[in-house]
Design goal:
The structure is a single chain. This protein is an alpha/beta fold. It has 25 helices and 26 strands.
Length: 759
Amino acid sequence: MKRIDCIIQRRTALRLPILFVLFLLTTSPAWGAHKKKVEERPLRVACVGNSVTFGYGLQHRDRDAYPVRLQQMLDSTYGANRFEVGNFGRSGATLLYKGHRPYIKTEEFQQALAFKADWVVIHLGLNDTDPRDWPDWKEDFIPNYRALIDSFRLVNPEARILICKMTPIFDRHSRFQSGTRDWHAQIQQAIGQVAQGAGVQLVDLNTPLHSRPDLFPDALHPNPEGAMILARTIYGALTGNYGGLCLPPVYSSGMVLPRDEHLLIEGRADARRQIRRVLTKEGKVVDEGAAFTRADGSWWMELPHMPAGGPYTLTLTATPLPPDDYRFYYPANYPFLLENLTKGAGQTLTIDSLFFGDLWLASGQSNMELRVDQCNTLEEDLAAASRLGQRLHLYNMPARARTDAVEWDDSVLRYTNELRHMDFQGWKTATPEAVRAFSAVAFNFGRVLCDSLPDVPIGIICNAVGGSTTESWTDRTTLEWEFPNILRDWRNGDFGQPWARGRMTQNIAHALDKESPAYNALQRHPYEPAYLFEAAIAPLGHLPIKGVLWYQGESNAHNIEVHEHLFRLLEQSWRQHFARRWNCEFQKKPVLPFYVVQLSSLPRSSWPAFRDSQRRLADELPNTWMAVSTDLGDSADVHYRTKRPVGERLALQALHHTYGHSLVSEGPSPRSAVRGQNHTLVLRFDHADGLTCSRGFELASSDGLFYPADIKIEGDKILLSSPAVKNPVVVRYGWSGFTDADLRNAQGLPASTFQMSVN
């Protein structure tokens, strides 16, 4: 008892509840029974936690609570009667001993100790986000958690302890912005410190569920499907079984990986596996190496610098480690555990026709999505594709269901909720057949790069979705911290464009019908905030892409101020995602470049100001450049059919800014506006060699009334005047939804819509 008292006193001042329970346990006849050979009874798993463990809110918790599902999974793998899973969850319980309902003072805690578990899974902390708890007692969290762990080690010194990062709390929670969001993040960090300090396994229950708000009816407790994901995650952590060797779906035969730089490949396999790689070309080994999976099944490995070229073959093999390497997790007196985990000769994945070159990502909405066979340069584009050979590689990810004016059936609603809305069609060489169904903008971008970089394979992934919103492409964590209000009830709020919200409601009408068997108030849709990041960006893994081609904005043009905030967040979101590991662990790469297409001409009143906003964003944001398309628009169709020049203009910008080619890559760009003589206004431009213009300028004095301007060109400057404007202070150009303004430079590149005041 001196040893028990010493440990508990060191961890926390509140040791009496634990000591009392231990006294009862060590003086009872059951204590001696623990000394019997463990293999004579099932291996015991204690699920310790709060209401999520208990199964609060589940109509059939005796069937759906995660410990019940865990028992079923273990029985299915190892056979009946080899495991006994106990549910010791208590609704409302706090980890903090001074919290409003300490777990150590509950009957479930005493039962968990008496269970004398071999494996203990602890999921606590959610209720500590209560304002009654964390603000006052947060300094006690780590020592209290360490004492809780020690209590289970005292009743069974051989116990394997796993502690869990908390399941998510979503923005719909009433206290999300008043402290819960912040305290939840702080507690997650503290749990990680506990795991490291106590030498216990850390299980991440947040990541598998953070992208599934539809599984949390009250923003806190998972439904049966969510509980199943919990069980599957904990099952993997306990057994090391994660479904075998796998890679993100885009890692497949025919792909392009970066050239001339350090490269990390990441994937997943069963725990405690060696992953061996062999890279060959024409049957000869070029590189080989190995890595090891972590306890969570993740692995990554470094490939050396590879010159542009191919094809190569990459073979990955996962093989079990020797049995002695498992002893920490799987005790010898349960040999069936090792037999299951170490059986088999290993698994192999092969990526044939692997090329090293440059990899680009093309995203946005319908004008990026518009296919080559829908455009007016089809024959030219197909002819170009036929001569590219194996230099251009395409990965198409179209939506499985279009967001047309239709009501989706139950199957679409279901796979959309499951984040399976995108169709991963695999890598294809840019043959005429493959090009037909690919983005016209993205293909023509790649075509120009191939012509300009003849020895460099180019890969392009396109995952554009018609009508999609900027917020739908931004990750949930970024929105939770930087723009949480846009997450809440987006379908009925003011942030989303009325058209987009209406189309969303139409598509999911079946799920919103309370009389329907498919009724689901939390039904997902591609237009909602964070959805397309979760369904179309996250599955790519942390690919080391060369840059982003972005054509979107039509569904956000109604609110320029919100879009300006969102676009900054989107760039931040993607740069953080794709830079993870690639930049931090090996080398400092440049900021991921974004090449943006400005909205074209269409008679919509908000578009001129929106185009000007896009111009200013491109000027202000790092490594962001814009291609103008106003001269290509169709007054009667948002989906204008002349996309070939758009891809070419994006390619010019990339060749200049990313590849360092000396060329003019954009049209005239206003540099300054000053008053001249005789009531004129003098504009100076960059990229101004060979200026031509006959129309499109307007002037205004301080009264804010604009009048058409007379135009005189002198070198890199334009002199503007109007008999109706005696003291011009503001100039604007191309300021109508559909414009015929025609300012260009010698390269034929058009100027952007803009408005500028006198300097």
